[in-house]
Amino acid sequence: MILFVFEGVEREPRVFRTLERLFFGQGERIICSFGNNIYELYRQIQEFEGDGDIVSILRENRADLPDGVKTSDFSEIYLFFDYDFQNENLTLEEMNQRLREMLAVFNDETDNGKLYVSYPMVESLYYTKVLPDEHFVEYTVSRSDCMERPFKELAKEFSYYGSMDFIELPDAGHHKPGKREYARVKQNWIWLVRQHTAKACFICTGRIAVPEDKEDVAQLRIFEGQCGKYLCGGERIAVLNGFPLFLFEYFKGSFWQ
What we know:
Blueprint: E1 2-6, H1 11-23, E2 29-33, H2 38-47, H3 54-60, E3 76-82, H4 92-105, E4 107-108, E5 113-118, E6 140-142, H5 143-148, H6 151-158, H7 179-205, H8 219-229, E7 236-238, H9 242-250
Helix pairs in contact: 4-8, 7-8, 7-9
């Protein structure tokens, strides 16, 4: 079994259901939501003495998990959370220290789990102009901007698409997508993977290119790059999403080139 843990209850699971239909074959995958942000997850992990037992924490939060399963029952665990640097309850330094610790604990999908972070939020998926967007590597957002207006509003206003519709397949129970719609959505995801991985590579190495190796764009390395290139220079971050990075790493090879 593979466990996918999402911050949100609706948006992230819906996105992943599309990814399942586009890219995944048969297999037992369990999807559940934590229902709170990464910093609350950090707090609860500290209460569990920092051992990273994500399944126990999910149970404490009444997450929808099969009866009796434990962390060791899963061959792989993936977590998807937002950076959320508009959080007013913590200083930027406190958020960065906690996220750095979380990325160190959740750095292996076959152990505690692997954490993928979206900067600043999952809505960074549609923070783009017409795909492929050759200027995507340039897009940043400030903490003050995200405090004044929700990032989802900023993304909707900036985006050519304005919603997730261009990368989501309709619910099969209500509308079965045709071949053209299926191909269109899949191609959009391919463009997103190329854009986000090339930008992650720039953040980490200074090169704008789809990376040759997943270690070039490791999550902790991206975070340190964000801190060095953007946050230390004025509380800005590069807009980047965790889902395309996950796809790049999960489906290895030349598919994304």
